[in-house]
Design a protein that fits this description.
288 residues, alpha+beta, SH3 type barrels, 3 domains, 3-stranded mixed β-sheet, 6 helices
Length: 288
């Protein structure tokens, strides 16, 4: 009897030892401490890697050579540090935040603008450092004087026919008398437009300097739509001249040879009739 009891006790201990190693039910062993440490490290590093791709705006951006780069304005610029986002011709330059965001994105960098800033002021100083003391007084005078106005200017000279890109524009403080006439509301309203005649670096951007790109060429076939009260009729005619969106041009009816006044609405398309008159009226009111 004593021998049987000892055999049963030995078997029970062997079963308990196997159960402890496998976690019961024959399942695989629990992950090792080393494996858990690797997983924890990956989880801890993931936020840091995500943040590494996001630009952080410096508290006091400066540049030393007049060429403002992503590295001058942002910490954590990495490979995009030398990408030019604007130019400075005076003691300070004021960049449009939306334009900076677009240029950064085009070059593979991300700035989420967490504070919703509209403009970024860049002062004269060593690249990426605090501005020199000698520049402090001019900066203060530019910001406080009522004789100056902050407007959109050309970052460099442009030729007639050039299409305006984000890097072609920047905000700058100019004398109030130079900032008269029609001015763009913001950089976005000028980007994508065509320069009508040569402009100089630092010159104030006026709406009259720019025009919409040509979408209809002279002698090109154009679909003309007559529309009124939900009814629409279409024909194909020949354009008498080049036209941009919103332009009023004449299109010849190939059958009757008569000329039809129509408003360009897109590439190869124009509108005539009462609907065109309403569109023209809205355009006139929006310019006032």
């Amino acid at each position: 009897m004593k021998k049987v009891f000892l055999m049963r006790s030995h078997a029970a201990r062997a079963y308990a030892a196997r159960h402890h190693r496998t976690g019961g039910g024959g399942q695989s062993p629990l992950p090792s401490v080393r494996a858990l440490g690797v997983v924890a490290a990956v989880l801890l590093l993931t936020p840091a890697l995500a943040l590494a791709d996001t630009l952080v705006l410096k508290s006091a951006p400066t540049d030393g050579d007049g060429r403002i780069t992503i590295g001058d304005v942002f910490d954590n610029a990495g490979a995009q540090a030398n990408v030019i986002i604007g130019y400075r011709t005076g003691a300070t330059a004021v960049l449009d935040a939306g334009t900076v965001q677009m240029v950064a994105s085009r070059n593979g960098a991300t700035w989420d603008n967490p504070r919703g800033q509209r403009r970024i002021i860049v002062a004269s100083g060593a690249d990426g450092s605090a501005p020199d003391d000698t520049q402090a007084a001019p900066v203060a005078s530019v910001q406080k004087t009522s004789l100056n106005k902050e407007v959109l200017v050309y970052a460099h000279s442009m030729n007639a026919g050039d299409i305006v890109q984000p890097e072609d524009l920047q905000f700058a403080s100019v004398q109030a008398q130079a900032a008269t006439g029609g001015l763009p509301r913001d950089a976005r309203s000028a980007i994508g437009k065509v320069v009508r005649f040569p402009t100089r670096e630092g010159g104030v951007v006026h709406t009259g300097d720019l025009t919409s790109p040509t979408v209809i060429k002279r002698a090109e076939a154009v679909k003309v739509t007559w529309a009124s009260n939900g009814m629409a009729l279409s024909m194909t005619g020949i354009a008498s001249k080049d036209g941009a969106i919103g332009d009023l041009i004449q299109i010849q009816n190939p059958t009757s040879k008569k000329m039809v006044d129509a408003i360009v609405t897109g590439p190869g398309e124009a509108l005539t009739g009462p609907a065109a008159d309403e569109l023209r009226t809205r355009q006139t009111l929006s310019l006032r």
